[in-house]
Amino acid sequence: MARITWGMATSHVPSIGAAMDNHKTEDPYWKPLFDGYEKARTWMAEHQPDVAVIVYNDHANAIDMDLVPTFGIGTAESYDVADEGWGPRPVPSVVGAPDLSEHMVRELIDDSFDIATFHQLDVDHGLTVPLSVYCPEPGESWPCAVVPVLVNVIQYPQPTAARCYALGQAIGRAIRSFPQDLKVAVFGTGGMSHQLSGARAGLINERFDRMFLDKIEHRPEALTALTREDYIAEAGTEGIELIMWLVMRGAMSDNIARVHDTYHVPASNTAAALALFEDLDSREGVTA
Amino acid sequence: MTEARDDYVLDVKQSRRGYALNRLCGSLKDADNRRRFSEDEAAYCDAYKLSPEQKRAVLERDWTAMLDLGASIFYTFKLAMLDQKSMQYLGGVFTGMSAEEFASAMRSGGRKFG
Ligand SMILES: [Fe+2]
């Protein structure tokens, strides 16, 4: 059976990808952020998954206002890197895991999550930046296959934090019932506090962010109790992306350990963080 | 210049209002469309059936008015990038600062509310 070995939550700000693409990670502006990643990157490189299930949102690239699915799963054999308006990132295209995607879609629908399916999907910075956070030098191809999981966080009403956590739990069950011996990592992406538009543009709420970083480990119910209005008020209109971290957390067991985390302001207009958790239930020789 | 509201929440009603505007900005993800837009911005706005107010906001790059008319920042950012304007520039527009002032506010820990 497949096992979830670890979960990583990370911001997916486009400029973090651009800093890597343009070799600026040693610049004084970017160095503190990338130094903060170091310990997590070393650990992840020693614990490579076969598949990454990446929970993210599209930003007007694969999804437009014609149709806004609340939750979706990519089911393709491969995913091209999107041109978001300034040319695609110079990173490899993404290889899918269509058998696992198909299994997840079926299991989730049987579990009452009526999920949309994407047979054609160009993946934007929301997915590729987290891959680069995991693997900064992929060479010709990424080191793992990917199942994209899409969440609408742009059009209001977004799904509730509680529903995102429940979706994560269902994803966890689906992965653990997949009859192949695969190591799976789950990525939750987006956040932390930021607001791009309006008079509150530039909002950063470090108190809220640190509370979230702390509670995501052992008190996720404190975060699922918050309404979308709470997230928008505290973390900003775009900070609501944090609900996607709860999908990752829901997919993991209760028996997790924090490997590393880091928090830095700013990445562009955003507070950026990474949190990495090992799922101890998945360790070799342990049967849940 | 239009003054920005605190929050712009893209609910279904706003999405409906901003549909043509967001569709135009979203189309700029294709290189061919970027070229066509730059050749004749007004004709491009007409082809995408923008309202007169939306068309004016686009042609004059009134970024706040675009938000008031239903735009989402993820769409208008594509237009900004075509103009080689950064998110810090837009942040400055919404808050009455220059791009440099806004970026420096971010480097000092961001803007605090409440
Ligand atoms: Fe995002």
From TrEMBL, chain A:
Extradiol ring-cleavage dioxygenase class III enzyme subunit B domain sequence ranges: 9-270
Keyword Oxidoreductase: yes
Coiled-coil stretches: none
MF terms (GO), sorted A to Z: ferrous iron binding; oxidoreductase activity, acting on single donors with incorporation of molecular oxygen, incorporation of two atoms of oxygen
InterPro entries in UniProt: Xdiol_dOase_suB
Official protein name in the record: Protocatechuate 4,5-dioxygenase beta subunit
Species of the source: Halopolyspora algeriensis
Keywords associated with the record: Dioxygenase, Oxidoreductase
Gene3D superfamilies attached to this UniProt entry: LigB-like
From TrEMBL, chain B:
Xref: InterPro entries: LigA_sf (IPR036622), Xdiol_dOase_LigA (IPR011986)
A GO MF label: dioxygenase activity
Keywords of this entry: Dioxygenase, Oxidoreductase
Gene3D superfamilies: Dioxygenase LigAB, LigA subunit (1.10.700.10)
Ranges for domain Extradiol ring-cleavage dioxygenase LigAB LigA subunit: 21-107
Pfam families to which the protein is assigned, alphabetical: LigA
Protein name from the UniProt record: Protocatechuate 4,5-dioxygenase alpha subunit
Protein source organism: Halopolyspora algeriensis
